[in-house]
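Can anyone check this?
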Amino acid sequence: MIVRARPKFLATGQNTGEWSPDPQRLYFDHGRSALSFLLTLLRQRTGRQLVVGLQSFNCGTVADAIIHSGNRGMVLDVDPECFSVTPAIVSKSLAELDVLLLTHYQGLINPAYAEIAEQCGKQGVWLIDDAAQTEGSRVNGQLIGSLADFKLESYAFDKPFSSLTGGALLINSRVPPDLQADLVRGHAAQPEEFPRKAQLDLKALDLLMDWTTPEHYRGRFPYNLVRRLLGAGVPTQAIRGWLVHDPATLPAKVGRFINHQLTRLSPAFPAVKRLHSLKVKILEQQRATAHRPGIKLWQPQLNRLGLSIPIFPGVDVHWNRLSVLDSEAGTLRGWCAAHGIEAANYNWPEPLHVLFADHPRFTMNGAYAASSLCARRVVNLPIWMEELP
């Protein structure tokens, strides 16, 4: 995570309006929980282990969800121009797939979205839009999620909509009614997130929004530590002093060490839970705010550096950070470092074909040259909501 990519539509103390939940959006405590829940139910209904296609340039928690659901994964390479798969890549493995998880990266909807959706439809492959890194983008007027059977969302602190932790599964109307009903019933049967955790998450979210500004930020801000310290009764001013004003102090270092150990000892894949209603309310209220693209903020400087923003005909980009391929020499990283801007591949620096190379549940095919290229050269650039046009 990079703290400069923080929620775009959450303002301290302003999300108090009316709200009504979307019945087709099933909220979970994490995005990976939503994916595991869906894949588990599809496996149970089919009566066999499913093969899920997913790209290598991806988040490791996606692979964890496939494992947790009892299914198998087939790892695909990507097109470095759009950081996602192409119809040609999909066609090579489509006959072997039951599910395709289509990743849309950093606001850039897959430019071949319609063609890939048509491929899956003809083959009888379930299509899941992984929109954990994209919200509100369109290609030729088609909104992300509109052509898939399901859509996944994520609400971590580095996402435009946030409840600190959380995710959702959206069910498209084309899904058979009996499956829709099973999903809704199954979701209702999951335990709800503990109220105390929900309250601490929202308090930490409020504090983080107050503590992170364009003038003062730190990459990889340990927001889990903020929640844990609040739960332990540590005064907020003490937390702020340790983590914001002077992160080099001994108490801050001890706190981060303890947080790391607690995270390491946590279950690899926590039990699936429904998101608490307090957090659902906050998310639904944020959705009332219109999207504002921020891509123009970086375009002039990238042009001067000889780099280009990924632009495709008919595609618009909505997100709270922008990602581009740096030159092999690291021109963009060098320029950012010279201007005091942290910039790197903060999301997926190690592709899945490396992380899960020897895992028995994953099938690898090919050299994954493009995925390795993206992991090595992608740069995530911040877009502060205060600076948006």
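Reply from J.R.: I decoded it. Residues 195-268 form one domain.
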